[in-house]
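Researcher: Next sequence.
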Amino acid sequence: MTNTLASANALAIVEALQQQHGKIERMLVAFERQLAIFEDGGSPDYELIARILAFSVAYLSPQHLAAERPLLMALIDRHLIDGLETEALEMQYDEIVEGAREASRAVEAVFRDAEVRRERLSQIARDFIDSCRRHMKTEEQLFFPTAIESLGPSDWEAIERAISTATGVSSDVHYESGQAQYQELVRWGEAG
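Model: Next structure:
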């Protein structure tokens, strides 16, 4: 029964993270659509782009990455991933956060009519998109399967508690607000 419960906890946690990856991917697709318009010399919906990036800074970092960290820490504590893999994942976290901030600054510069070369804004945005996708692929192919196969019931219980504490999902109104904003951004991006 305990192994079944551990398996259920493991699958529920990993499935929740995978669902978040799906949401992030849909948001990236909406962002890419606008970026393609920009790269073709058109006028994208800068407000949508700015809101996607603001959401990425305000919610993806503190919520999604914070939810993944307890799982990463359990793998490190159990010596199930090596130092290079750990370092690569940590660097990816930093790339995503900094990439969203840098892209936000570039879009803000466009709003202020500052001189921003199209190629530079495009490269910054593409780097952000690529870093998000690279990170999700690493987790889907390495991180999640290793965790499911190797962690025990007490690990999963601790991970579940740590995720709740780190993200405040059970009590944080900001999380609910973030989910509502995400839904609005995706609808807006799909309509555009």
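Model: The chain has one domain: 2-191. Residues 170-175 have pLDDT under 50 and may be disordered.
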